[in-house]
């Protein structure tokens, strides 16, 4: 009696079967999550907060760096001209300096204007009227461009300005710039460290959540092992569960960051108005949003992989 050979599946059919099982595992994992609304909401909220904290610090630091780049209310360099330099020469020098690409703006404060501003301060009217001549020199306020605002570049610009024959001396206050940049660098480093610590926390949260789900489905897993299910087959639904936790947590984090930026916008606008300008907080943007969501999914996958791997190793040991 001849045996009838069952035709083997074609590679395309195997691929369709594999994709169908992945889709079914993803849907089933999501259905289980929505079937436990309270535990799922709590887990997603904790993941979202853990991801939102470093993301918010990153957004705040980035906005602060952008804001400081726009602060041009005070001249970075005040170039005092020699007393014998007349108004025409000072105007010509200001025009030459305006043509330099490293300077965003050059303002000329002529001797008469400086004297008038000094009189407005009050208390010196009598002393100034007793003088036969205006003792104040003309001043050029040099505002560097955003690409030439580091302390090193400002010092180089100061030396170039002092080399001008019309220059007498210059005054530059870069200490606040150096302090601010040091604070921003510290904030960026703290953001990275906090992100790493909270990322580890997300791994532990997802791993523990998946471990509890494995315990709840121990009987189902044992049956799959008895019928010869592969480790990949057993691991797949739990990996999707971890990915769903990470995805929902990432979306929750982006929502929290957006709400924080919206809440702070009013206070930031009032602060900018005090300096005679306006500033609108920037959020995560498309790139930042994708980074947070992808990070959440990756952490969810890694955490669930570790949890399922430990269970499979324990099952093999027994």
From TrEMBL:
Residues 76-160 form the FtsX extracellular domain. Its main location: membrane. GO terms for biological process: cell division. It is a multi-pass membrane protein. Keywords: Cell cycle, Cell division, Cell inner membrane, Cell membrane, Membrane, Transmembrane, Transmembrane helix. It is found in: Cell inner membrane. InterPro entries: ABC3_permease_C (IPR003838), FtsX (IPR004513), FtsX_ECD (IPR040690), FtsX_proteobact-type (IPR047590). It comes from the Bacteria. It holds the Pfam family FtsX_ECD. The chain crosses the membrane at residues 42-60, 182-206, 243-264, 284-308. Part of the ABC transporter FtsEX involved in cellular division. Forms a membrane-associated complex with FtsE. Belongs to the ABC-4 integral membrane protein family. FtsX subfamily. This is Cell division protein FtsX. It comes from Marichromatium bheemlicum.
